[in-house]
Design goal:
Shape: globular
Strand order of the largest sheet: 3-2-1-4-5-7-6
Structural class: alpha/beta
Largest sheet: 7 strands, mixed
Strand content: 15-25%
Number of strands: 7
CATH class: Alpha Beta
Distance between the termini: 25 Å
CATH topology: Rossmann fold
Order of helices and strands: HEHEHEEHEHHHHEHHHE
Helix content: 40-55%
CATH architecture: 3-Layer(aba) Sandwich
């Protein structure tokens, strides 16, 4: 199995670190992807269910299947859902356990860049989608559009000998560069391909609200932070606090966050 590069074992901690932003982006992504209002939709890399739950509201005549590599995330999503039109399966995005042309639309929100075989996962999304069905995905624009994480990564790269390697790995992950999605979707033979950018605001109440979610170890940022020595972690926290404050007092901050989105027809 291809697996996942995303450390995902604590759904509650994930909700605080990144899940809240997935929920905020989900409606924008659905508006862009424009899946059919009825039929079967697959959510690849569903996490704790942000996109699946939003789809259930936006398209009340659809049946939605969410798939994620993390059993813990799938179980969390099942507990949160009382909608009989929703189902959550554990599985591998690069080896989808579904038949050819089984879904009227296949969507993926903020996960393809964490799949070791990202291109294989994209091909699988096309395979399970009916001819004429929507195949759409989104990933964060790490290099140019994710300010809250860019501040962290640039700080870590200066203060930690391994910080540059962390930044380079995450910020060069698949499909995150300008135009990469469109090239990949066209190369798979998808029709009417469109790439766009989708922007939300990430709102924090304080530096504590910004910093502490990473201490839970979720995702590549959390895994990196929890691997640090206490001295290095304190150094990064200190300088990151200065960057967050930026000459002001502690309190609310709002950072722009942009994702690349792509859409095509099978």
């Amino acid at each position: 199995m291809s697996g996942s590069l995303f450390n995902a074992n604590d759904p509650v901690a994930y909700e605080r670190s990144m899940g809240r932003w997935s929920r905020r982006l989900a409606d924008l992504f659905i508006e862009f992807a424009a899946p059919p209002g009825r039929g079967k939709i697959l959510d690849v890399g569903c996490g704790t269910g942000s996109l699946a739950f939003a789809l259930a509201k936006a398209a009340p005549e659809t049946v939605i299947t969410g798939l994620d590599y993390s059993q813990a995330f799938c179980e969390h999503a099942r507990v949160q859902s009382i909608n009989p039109r929703l189902r959550f399966d554990q599985g591998d995005a690069a080896a989808l356990p579904y038949g050819d042309g089984e879904f009227d639309a296949t969507l993926s929100l903020l996960v393809l860049n964490f799949v070791p075989d990202a291109e294989g996962a994209a091909r699988e999304m096309k395979r399970v989608t009916k001819p004429g069905g929507v195949v759409a995905a989104a990933v964060w624009d790490y290099r140019g559009g994710l300010m809250f994480l860019r501040i962290f990564a640039d700080t870590a790269a200066v203060l930690d000998p391994n910080g540059e390697a962390y930044r380079a790995k995450q910020f060069s992950s698949p499909f995150t560069g300008p135009g990469e999605f469109e090239v990949a979707w066209r190369s798979m033979g998808l029709r009417e391909v469109t790439q766009t950018s989708l922007t939300i605001r990430m709102d924090f109440t304080s530096f504590k609200d910004y910093w502490e979610p990473w201490l839970s170890g979720q995702g590549p940022v959390g895994a990196y932070v929890t691997s640090l020595s206490e001295d290095t972690k304190k150094q990064i926290e200190h300088h990151l606090r200065l960057a967050y404050l930026a000459g002001g007092t502690d309190g609310p901050r709002s950072f722009a966050a942009t994702a690349w989105g792509v859409r095509g027809l099978a």
